[in-house]
Amino acid sequence: METRSPVRVGEVLTFRFTSKDGASFLLRATVAHSRTIPGPIGPVLYSSGLEFAAQRTLMGQQAIKVLLDKIDRILAFPKSLPA
């Protein structure tokens, strides 16, 4: 993820994911690594990698699968070309 505020490695964050169809669920993630990305003109950004804690439970694994399936459908959806 990219943020304008720093996050600490080991910090646990909670994310709410909501799709257009109204499905919503929370996932917790631990910050696995983080680095500073200097902006050439704009503000500094922080790029961080996350490890989703939900991977450890069946319910969490199912929630992550639903999220990834939805993302996959969005990315696979053909984009309309300009006329």
Describe the structure.
By secondary structure, the chain is of the alpha+beta class. The protein has a four-stranded antiparallel sheet with strand order 1-4-3-2. It has one helix at 58-76; strands spanning 2-3, 12-18, 24-37, 45-52. It starts with a strand and ends in a 7-residue tail after the last helix. The longest helix has 19 residues, at 58-76. It has one helix and four strands.
Which terms would index this structure?
alpha+beta, SH3 type barrels, 83 residues, single chain, four-stranded antiparallel β-sheet
Radius of gyration: 16 Å
Mean pLDDT: 79
Arrangement of strands in the largest sheet: 1-4-3-2
The count of strands amounts to 4
Classify the beta-strand content into a percent band: 35-45%
Count of helix runs: 1
Do you know the CATH architecture?
Roll
CATH class: Mainly Beta
User: What spatial form do the alpha-carbon principal axes imply?
Assistant: globular
* CATH topology heading: SH3 type barrels
- Elements, N to C (H/E): EEEEH
How many structurally independent domains?
1
Structural class category: alpha+beta
Question: What is the distance, rounded to the nearest whole angstrom, between the alpha carbons of the first and last residues?
Answer: 34 Å
Share of helix among residues? 10-25%
Unreliable runs? none
